[in-house]
Design goal:
globular
């Protein structure tokens, strides 16, 4: 599945969850919030990414920035959206 399709699905899921009050995250996936500013973009990623060495850097950044208290109520990653999309695109190809 192409990254753009996945991101569109993630964004459409967010719109549904905002209108219905539920959180549409498929089994085997998790929602993460990405951004360096006050506004964070929500992405839905496979849980398998969490163990990948390339993704571990994001998790270290999140731990340094927020510890275990994430302001969005979920995993928040303090990096640029472009970098996040680039890394996750590479992970999807492997």
């Amino acid at each position: 599945m192409a990254i753009r399709q996945i991101l569109k699905r993630s964004l459409s899921s967010e719109k549904r969850s905002n209108s219905t009050g539920s959180t549409d995250v498929p089994k085997g996936y998790c929602a993460v919030y990405v951004g360096e500013s006050e506004y964070k973009q929500r992405f839905v990623i496979p849980v398998s990414f969490l163990n990948h060495p390339s993704f571990q850097g994001f998790l270290c950044q999140a731990e340094e920035e927020y510890g275990f208290c994430h302001p969005m109520g979920g995993l928040t990653i303090p990096c640029g959206e472009e970098l996040f999309v680039d890394v996750t695109s590479c992970l999807r190809r492997t």
